[in-house]
Design a protein that fits this description.
The protein is α+β, with helices and mostly antiparallel strands and 225 residues long. Helices cover 61% and strands 12% of the residues.
């Protein structure tokens, strides 16, 4: 936020109020993406520890083995972008997860731009084109064929209200500043929540047979005692 000397306190307050919504929106979206990344990293860590135990055919590991596994995961995370992280967590994703993972590419591009370039879209953000495009899936409500964006909203008599799940794009050109409305923040939260839920479902489906193997090892150890 720029500052001009000689301005009154009232002008300063007004300048802050004009920009605070945009700043809070940017902080909110960045935080949501980072929280998803932490969630995904924990799933990857769980997978690698279970795989390490099964390779050694035992239920525990030494301190050295623990650190080696943890270091391996950290190296994987450093060499993998957020957009490709689900590929490490689930080897055979469902069609639902594959469709939702497409959203990550846009979220990852947004976060990089916000963190490294103060939200000003530059050439490295847009790839081969001149625009940064991000999909915002979410529920939308229509009354008499018109989208209801604010409430209260009057719907003509004889017309119903319907809800649809739609995906739309937000586009920023090179040189433009990324800003989010409160509605776009809601759509981002909805999309990230849906993606996290589906990633967990696929993870559990894929890891259940492996956890059953650990259960069998545990029962075999109990019987041998």
């Amino acid at each position: 936020m720029s500052y001009q000397f000689g301005r009154s306190a009232r002008e300063d307050d007004e300048a802050v109020l004009r920009e605070v919504e945009a700043l809070l929106g940017r902080f909110a979206v960045t935080a949501m993406i980072s929280r998803f990344e932490g969630f995904a990293q924990n799933l990857l860590l769980q997978r690698r520890f279970v795989e390490a135990l099964l390779r050694q055919d035992k239920l525990s590991m030494s301190h050295t083995e623990f650190l080696q596994t943890f270091k391996r995961v950290q190296n994987e995370l450093r060499s993998t972008s957020l957009a490709r992280l689900p590929e490490l967590i689930v080897q055979k994703p469902s069609s639902e997860l594959a469709a939702k993972t497409v959203w990550l590419k846009g979220f990852y591009a947004i976060r990089k731009c916000l963190i490294h370039r103060q939200g000003i879209v530059q050439m490295e953000d847009v790839g081969d084109g001149y625009e940064l495009r991000v999909a915002w899936p979410g529920p939308r409500i229509y009354g008499a064929g018109v989208e209801i964006e604010r409430v209260p909203h009057e719907v003509p008599v004889g017309h119903g209200v319907e809800s649809r799940f739609e995906t739309r794009e937000t586009v920023w050109k090179v040189g433009e500043v990324i800003r989010f409305t409160s509605r776009e923040c809601q759509f981002a939260a909805f999309a990230i929540s849906q993606l996290a839920t589906q990633l967990l479902v696929d993870f559990e489906v894929e890891m259940t047979p492996r956890t059953h193997q650990l259960d069998e090892l545990s029962r075999a150890g109990s019987q041998s005692e």
